[in-house]
Amino acid sequence: MILDAHHPLSSGLTADSRLIQAYQGTRPAVTPVWFMRQAGRSLPEYRELRVGTRMLDVCLDPELASEISLQPVRRHNVDAGIFFSDIVVPLKLVGVDVSIVAGKGPVLGKAVRTSADVDELTALDPALLDDALAPISAAVALAVAQLGSTPLIGFAGAPFTLAAYLVEGGPSKDHIHARTLMHAEPEAWAKLMAWTADVTGRFLRAQVLAGASAAQLFDSWAGALSLADYAASVAPASAAAIAHVRDLTYTVPASNGAGATADAETVDRNVPIVHFGVGTGELLKEMHNIGADVVGVDYRVPLDEANRRLGGAVPVQGNVDPALLAAPWPVLEAHVRDVLERGRSAPSHVLNLGHGVPPDTDPDVLTRLVGLVHDVSAGE
Ligand code: 1CP
To answer: In ligand 1, which atom is closest to the CA atom of 161?
Structure first.
């Protein structure tokens, strides 16, 4: 489906931005940078806004969700906004009893442990989301209207990461109940993953239709899996989730970068899809193979090695170690220069952290880091 003419990719507002160029595999003159979890607790203006509110209520308030998405863009001069929401928002909207507990994370009213539990959960109809996602679409539209030529990234949790919360009932280190269910009840597992893919895919599609210029699938906890389990029991559901946005295209003039042929006047591009996980060095190739355009790399695998594992043809995103944000500036600077250098081996590179911004990060360090990335990549 071709995106509406008013969509910022179709209208041309964001199609030439550094971020979208890099996601489409062309290396821009200056390396784009944004930070996972850039919106949120590291910003005093966020903490001020959040006083007396509940996380999920804020996510469903279009004015607040839009304002919080814009805060880090105003402050840091990053090359993209990420929509302020949470991976469990579509679960809440479809009727799952889930809340976000401060300092902890998502907590379920009831863990989904048996095949009967899966039947009960999947009786909730994902089509309910067509109406229920209205506040999300409204929040994205508000943010995009303010962002102008800066692209907004939409996101969703991958089915395994969401299933990990559903089955464990809350945050977990090893996701052991989820991995048990995968093998003990393979049919129930497949049903749970297919339902979760549908729910999270609709959440992602709503954001892109409302104006997001790229889509990132977070499989934060996929690093708990063996390659064989990932390929057999998880990757098909992740592919089904991104199939909800895979068909969305926009048209650019043929003179505009890679993919152009001499005789065509325009080229169709799909909305770029980024796939990220933590501790997923062994899974990088499979994570690309689900149909992603860009692979996010955590801080454990250097980008030149990640590029080698990906076959040398895939744009990469990453991978500054978040721990170094609190190290002395010269230590952080040397690390960032190294990340940029290794990122040069890939077709294109979007600088990011190897996981989210730690809550106690000094926001001025992030602003300074953005300046460093822009200066170094432009040749200073
Ligand atoms: O700028 C941004 O990225 C902010 C928007 C955002 C995103 C992309 C939030 C707000 N959450 C997420 C995604 C998210 N949520 C992921 C994937 C990214 C990642 O791996 O970091 C995951 C795993 C969650 C689940 C979650 N929600 C956690 C982690 C819990 C655990 O298992 O360790 C937590 C703490 C939350 C709550 C949450 N989500 C977002 C914020 C700002 C908060 C904190 C809310 C609060 O307590 O005030």
So the answer is: 23
Q: Look at residue 241 and give its three-state secondary structure.
A: helix
Residue with tokens 């966020």: 46
Residue indicated by tokens 């990906």: 310
* pTM over 0.85, yes/no: yes
Question: For the chain, how many structural domains are there in total?
Answer: 1
Residues acting as catalytic residues: 37, 41, 50, 86, 165
In which element (H, E) is residue 266 found? strand 266-270
Is residue 82 within 6 Å of ligand 1 at its C-beta?
yes
Pocket perturbation via mutation, ligand 1, pick of 37, 91, 220 by most ligand atoms within 8 A of CB:
37
| pLDDT by 10s per residue, the chain, length 380 | 999 999 999 999 999 999 999 999 999 999 999 999 999 889 999 999 999 999 999 999 999 999 999 999 999 999 999 999 999 999 999 999 999 999 999 999 999 999 999 999 999 999 999 999 999 999 999 999 999 999 999 999 999 999 999 999 999 999 999 999 999 999 999 999 999 999 999 999 999 999 999 999 999 999 999 999 999 999 999 999 999 999 999 999 887 555 555 567 899 999 999 999 999 999 999 999 999 999 999 999 999 999 999 999 999 999 999 999 999 999 999 999 999 999 999 999 999 999 999 999 999 999 999 999 999 999 97
Does residue 7 lie in a domain region?
no
Q: What is the DSSP letter of 75?
A: H
Q: How far is the CA of 336 from the centre of ligand 1 (A)?
A: 24
The answer to whether residue 4 sits within a structural domain is: no
Q: Is residue 26 part of a domain?
A: yes
